[in-house]
Design a protein that fits this description.
- By secondary structure, the protein is mainly α.
- Helix content is 66%, strand content 0%.
- It has 2 domains: 1-161, Leucine-rich Repeat Variant (Alpha Horseshoe), CATH 1.25.10.10; 261-410, Leucine-rich Repeat Variant (Alpha Horseshoe).
- The chain has 21 helices and no strands.
- α14 (299-305) crosses α15 (310-326) and α15 (310-326) packs parallel to α18.
- The longest helix has 29 residues, at 176-204.
- This is TOG domain-containing protein.
- Residues 204-231 have a biased composition (Basic and acidic residues).
């Protein structure tokens, strides 16, 4: 289901989905490691859709492709290399960043798994078409003598059949006709080799997986730590209860209509404040949000939103949900801040808070859909990548809620 949703997101979002490459592409490629062929096939179809919408170059950003090729899972390596053999012949000449994939390719050529080796050898000529023989031959200098000789032989064979891809703007001149006929012959040969590699990749899943080591000792050693953790939780709980009386009583509307969204957008665009982009929320990010949201909520609501006790977060979410209809205009003016606060809850370990936050978002998106409200790029970028990241959550009820919200988002989020 998650694979199909990622495919639908690319289909609906088009080229605008390129901004989410770091969140989505590694996960899609990760499905190639699955032992079930039909799931690997679904992952390949999803990657095809993303590739058709955003192109090949985003795979080179942040070393997404080279990092994936370094994975040791034979299913992933064989499937990814077969996919590359399929798409590389149709790409324009790739930039120098593609050289980062040479070392992982050499590693795949020497992989212990036969299907990986076959897929890697079949793809060498396609890598060479973009990188050139000299660059790949030069990279063998870092190999040990035995590996260097065997890989150099493979490069020499690939050199004989490789049809270099000209850089953009260069003309073929009088050799154009010959190049076209050679290219057609090469394309036919490439298709045959890719088919052979795909057949070999299908055999990978039949090989027995390496036996897992017993984890008995590890589990035993973790028991004292868990017991100590329970004691600590009780201590924190009692401390939180003692502070509960200090919370300021409700002193007016929980959501205040405070104009300022456009100014926040300008400041973030001009890098006057920290950009809302992280793999895990940092203290300075949380403090910035705490300061930005303060004029937009009552003091008691502010205390609940940023309290260390999760029970106050549950209270805050209840109030936010009830405020959707009561303080709609005020909520829309602070929508970017509220969405950012919910993304922080995605990193909490408390499932009750997470599910309640997702329920709030579901009600919020329903209201936005009824009003034909479209999230601005500023609002969507602060929330949607983190929502999509929860599609793979291990808890079934969380995944179900996230999938429902993703479907709702088709009415409120424009990916163009």
């Amino acid at each position: 289901m998650a694979i199909n949703i990622s495919k639908q997101l690319a289909e609906a979002g088009g080229s605008g989905m390129a901004r989410h490459k770091n969140t989505m592409l590694p996960g899609i490629i990760g499905t190639f490691s699955d032992a079930k062929p039909h799931l690997r096939k679904a992952g390949e179809e999803a990657l095809d859709m993303w590739h058709s919408k955003i192109g090949f170059l985003p795979l080179l950003d942040n070393e997404i492709l080279s990092t994936a090729m370094k994975e040791t899972n034979p299913n992933l390596r064989a499937t990814l290399l077969t996919w590359l053999s399929k798409v590389l012949p149709n790409e324009k000449k790739l930039p120098g960043d593609f050289k980062d994939c040479i070392a992982p390719l050499f590693s795949c050529i020497e992989d212990r798994n036969g299907a990986v080796r076959d897929a890697a050898k079949a793809s060498v000529q396609h890598f060479m078409a973009h990188l050139g023989y000299e660059a790949m031959s030069k990279a063998t200098a870092k190999l040990d003598p035995t590996s260097k000789k065997s890989i150099q032989d493979i490069l020499e064979k690939a050199r004989e059949v490789c049809v270099p891809i000209a850089a953009p703007g260069k003309k073929g001149g009088a050799k154009g006709g010959a190049s076209k006929s050679a290219g057609a012959a090469q394309a036919a040969k490439s298709a045959a080799m890719a088919a052979q590699a795909a057949a070999a990749a299908a055999e990978v899943s039949k090989e027995p997986a390496a036996p897992k080591k017993a984890a008995g000792k590890k589990e035993e050693s973790s028991k004292p730590a868990k017991a100590e953790g329970r004691k600590t939780s009780k201590a924190v709980g009692s401390s939180s209860r003692s502070k509960k009386n200090a919370v300021v009583e409700d002193d007016g509307p929980p959501i205040i209509h405070k104009v300022g969204k456009n100014q926040r957008m300008k400041e973030e665009k001009a890098l006057k404040v920290l950009k809302w982009n992280f793999s895990a929320p940092r203290d300075e990010i949380v403090e910035q949000l705490k300061e930005q949201i303060q004029p937009c909520v009552s003091p008691s609501m502010h205390t609940k939103l940023f309290h260390k006790d999760f029970k106050f977060h549950l209270e805050a979410i209840d109030i936010l949900t009830k405020s959707i209809e009561t303080y709609t205009d005020a909520m829309l003016e602070s929508l970017d801040l509220l969405l950012k606060w919910v993304t922080l809850r995605f990193f909490d370990t408390n499932t009750s808070v997470l599910l309640k936050a997702l329920d709030f978002i579901s009600h919020l998106f329903s209201m936005l859909g009824d009003r034909d409200y479209q999230l601005s790029p500023f609002e969507a970028q602060a929330f949607m990548p983190y929502l999509v990241g929860k599609i793979g959550d291990p808890k079934d009820n969380v995944r179900k809620s996230v999938r429902g919200i993703v479907k709702q988002s088709t009415k409120t989020v424009s990916c163009q």
